[in-house]
Task: structure prediction
Amino acid sequence: MNTIAGERPKAPWHLWVLGVLSLIWFAGGANDYLQTKLVNMDYLGMAAEGVGVPVEVIIDYFGSYPLWANICWALGVWGAVIGSVLLLLRSRFALHALIASVIGLAGSTAYVFTSNPPPELVSTFQIVFTIVVWVSVLAMAYYARRMTANGVLR
Result:
């Protein structure tokens, strides 16, 4: 990029597009986290109906998360949201937040796949969705790294 020494390069159009899209995408995860933690019965009831279990199965499963898994889940969700916001603010700390999200996602994924969840909560959809979340978080972390290296994020 051609810039005068000390000047910040202009943000490319794709930074705004990816920043907004990632914020919307990760805000969906934040909503799910909040609705689950607040035990929103309407929200959890729709989820339970979708997988064909009583709502108590979902409440009991998420209520049984150990502290470390809850911390990982929160870190994964909020790190991604904060990373998207920081990307839009053109802060190099977007990369740090997204790395925190990857760490949280690793811990929460490990817990989900080793915790022996109710069989009704394990599906091909859940596995594919988890892969999509992984790809999106890793892609945004890579993007933030590239934008930092190019001097767009400071």
Summary: Residues 41 and 55 are 8 Å apart (CA to CA).
